[in-house]
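thread from #wetlab-drylab

HS: before we spend reagent money on co-crystallization trials with flavin-adenine dinucleotide, can we at least see a predicted complex? here's what I'd submit
DV: go for it
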Amino acid sequence: MEKVVIIGGGIGGLVTAKTLAKEGIPPLLVEKNKTFGQKACGEMVTEEFFGLNLYQFLEKEEVILRKSEKMVINFADRDYFFDLKNSSLGLKKVVQLDKRAFEEELAEEAKEFGAKIFLGKEVKKLERKKDSILIDGEIEAKLVIGADGFHSVCRKFVGQKIKSYGFAISGYGKSEREYPTFFFDPEISKEGCGWIFPRQGGEANVGFGGLEAEKVKSSLEKFLSKFGLKIENEKGAFLPTQLPFRLSFDNLILVGEAGALTDPFWGAGIASAIFSGYLAGKMAKEAVEKNDFSAKFLRKYEKEVKEKIYLKSFRNLLLQKIFSFLLPHKKTVNLLLKILSRL
Ligand SMILES: Cc1cc2nc3c(=O)[nH]c(=O)nc-3n(C[C@H](O)[C@H](O)[C@H](O)COP(=O)(O)OP(=O)(O)OC[C@H]3O[C@@H](n4cnc5c(N)ncnc54)[C@H](O)[C@@H]3O)c2cc1C
């Protein structure tokens, strides 16, 4: 019998594995892909989030490709600059990650502390036993940590369905832009945006995301053609755009995107995956020490995560609705951005 099994080796699962292994309780982590960092992503994250600092989780600075104290919102061809030190966007300094390298690094560190990592193993089925969960009829765990992203088998196992979602595509291209930039243009899309996030040597992470999944590909093409961009390694993925799910159950907790912790306006989920993964690791340690895997005991984890994330999620869900409504009204949006960028 395993004490803790983590399903999913994205950022959330890997931070959980590293945190728990460092606490002296090495878990088993199973990941369906054969290598890390396969998922589409813009790879941008703030340096500070939810009372934590990104550098707590990084051993090697090379994983950070670029840092920026400014961000730009381009609306219908006009650039609005936001100084992130005191910005009305509520973001601090942002960094551009090499996310695959970050995930590989987290996995190496988790392994150094004794975690077992199985790559290329897709979990298909969970079954409830008296005081454990059986995974694919072969691995029995006292505690399962569902860090298996948007299509989470763990979340489905506890009967929770995604209610609202979007789709986003990312790739790599060339750009001379100095600062990370979001592009809103009602002529390209009324419910989505493009981005150019500079990396190193004139390379940038470029992509487009929106609420109407089937329109994202054509919006991306319009966006690329308008700015004369070409991208390679194009990948797409769904992402939740709703309030977080319930996160704690008997013998199971949900981490990151599996728990819909992704920001419903920006689509950002790296920070919340790290934050929830870190707290999940701490919670799992306590559960193992007390030999208590009940939903009642694990509820502490959910409370701590939601205390920091729920209100922000609620506010940005409202922002998503307001912005989609306002976007076609160019004069109003220009005025709003002008005011916000000067605050
Ligand atoms: C195009 C795009 C751009 C984005 N840009 C940004 C950005 O710039 N900044 C930001 O903060 N967020 C961004 N996001 C969101 C961010 O990528 C996610 O919120 C974040 O990666 C969630 O991390 P996670 O570990 O919870 O889930 P994931 O990264 O989805 O990891 C889940 C892991 O579980 C594995 N898995 C799934 N099912 C199983 C199974 N049955 N068995 C075993 N393994 C399984 C998957 O292979 C995957 O490795 C973007 C998303 C997209 C789609």
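DV: Residues 30 and 128 are 19 Å apart (CA to CA).
HS: ok that's useful, forwarding to the group
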